Structures are given as C-alpha cells and as structure tokens.
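Appendix B, record 7
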Amino acid sequence: MKISARNTMKGTVKSVAPGMVTTEIVLEVAPGLEVTSVITKSSAENLGLKVGDTAYAVVKASDVIVAVD
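Structure tokens (predicted):
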C-alpha cells in the first residue's frame, strides 16, 4: 500500500458495528488507545473487516483544531 497521507496508525480491529447505511469501526492503535471511524457500509463490506484484523487509521485533514476550557 502506498498513500500520500502522512498520518497513519496501524491497529487491530476491535469492533465492527454495521448500521443501515454506515459501519462503525474501532481500531486499537496502542494498548488502551482506540480510534473510531464511521465509513459507508459498502466500504466496510469491500474491506472485509472483522475483529482481530490488522488495519490502518489514515487521517487526512486540512485543519486540526485544538481547544481548552
């Protein structure tokens, strides 16, 4: 896999929760650290994701906002 995005995190699929249109994917990218993504149901089916698989969280954003109280 080659990709231009620089922010990638390798992880293990912890859960796959399909809905009517979208599917929620939870990846554990470090012990106790999870990243959740909501992708289309068809994309999840095409990827064939299942619990225990290795996958990558790829973050591509034009802005990252940091806030404090």
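Remarks on this record: Strands lie at 7-18, 22-30, 33-40, 54-59. The domain at 7-59 is CATH 2.40.50.100 (OB fold (Dihydrolipoamide Acetyltransferase, E2P)).
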